[in-house]
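From: lab user (bench 3)
To: helpdesk
Subject: output format question, protein + NAP

Hello, I'm new to running complex predictions and I'm not sure whether the block I got back is the full result or only part of it. Here's what I submitted:
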Amino acid sequence: MTEQQVMILGTGPAGYTAAIYAARANLNPVVLEGDEPGGQLTLTTEVENFPGFPDGVMGPELMESMKKQAQRFGAKFIFGKAAAVDFSGSPFAVTADDGTTYHSRAVILATGATARLLEIPGESELIGHGVSTCATCDGFFFSGKRIIVVGGGDSAMEEATFLTRYANEVTIVHRRDTLRASKVMQDRARSNPKIKWILNATPIAVKGDGQKVQGLEVRHNDTDKTEVLSTEGLFVSIGHRPNTAFLNGQVNLDKVGYVQVPANTTATNIQGVFACGDVADPRYRQAITAAGTGCRAAMDAERWLEQQA
Ligand code: NAP
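Helpdesk reply: Thanks, we reran it on our side. This is the complete output you should expect:
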C-alpha cells in the first residue's frame, strides 16, 4: 500500500476524533479499527455525560455518528487491529493482524484499554459460560437469575444497576469495605432494592461444572474464612488495562503499561508517534477527555508533518 501521511490505530472517541481532525486537515488518514470498532462505548448503553446530549445518547449511536463524521471528510477505515509496529525508521511500519503492512509518516496510537479479569482459578474456562465483562452484551442472558458483580468502582455500580433490569438479584462483591465509586453512582446502586452487598471479601475462585458458573469462592478479609457464594452469573468489573502489548517496547510506557506523554502534548518518545485516549490516560478515562486528546493528537501530528516538509 502507498505511504500514508497519518495512520490512526483504534476507533474509540479518541481515534474517531483524531480521524475527523486529520481528515479535515486533508491528511487523508487511514484508520485501523481495532478488535472492537467503536471501542468501549459500543459495549455501554446510555451515555449521560457527553456534552451536547441533554437527554443522553446510546454509546453505539454516538460512536457511529463520530465514524460517519470522519468518513464525510475522507477518513478511510480498515477492519483489523495492529499486531506489530516498526518505529525504527521513517516511514513507520504498522502490520495488521491479517499480515498486511502499512507505511505511514506519522502514527496516532488510540488503541484504548480492555476489561481486566480477576485471574483466579475457574474464571477463564467459564468466560462465555456465565463469566462476562460486559453487562450490556450479556445481561439479557441472565433474565430471572441471581448474579454477582465484582468491583467497587463506577463501572461496577453502573453494571450492577443495569443488570437489575434482567436479574432477580444482583450481589456486588468488593474486596474492601469502602467503595471507590463516585457518590452519585453509589447512591443509585444503594437505593436499588435488587442489589445486595458483600464487602471486604476477596474473590479466590470461580466454581462451575465446565458448562456454567455455579458459584464464586471468596475470602472474608476480616475473619479469613472462605465461602462459596452461589450464583448463576459473574460480571467482572474491575477496571481496564491499556492495549499496548503490540508496541513491543518501542514506545515508553509507565509501569502499568500506559503510553507516556508529557503534559501539554500527545507526543510520545518517538518523533512522529502520538498517543491519545485511554491508552495514554490512567487518570480521567472519559469519552469526552479521550475525544479531546484525539483532537490534540491530530493537531500535533499535522504540525509535526508540516515541520518535516
Ligand atoms: P476503577 O475505578 O479502577 O475501579 C476498579 C475496581 O475494581 C476497584 O474498586 C478495585 O478495588 C476493584 N479491583 C481491581 N482489581 C481487583 C481484583 N484483582 N480483585 C478484586 N477487585 C479488584 O475502574 P472502573 O470502575 O472501571 O472506572 C474507571 C474510570 O471510568 C473511573 O474514572 C470511573 O469514574 C470512570 N467511569 C465513569 C462512569 C460514569 O460516570 N458513568 C462509569 C464507569 C466508569 P479497590 O477499590 O480496592 O482498588
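A quick orientation on your result: Residues 129 and 212 are 5 Å apart (CA to CA). Let us know if anything else is unclear.
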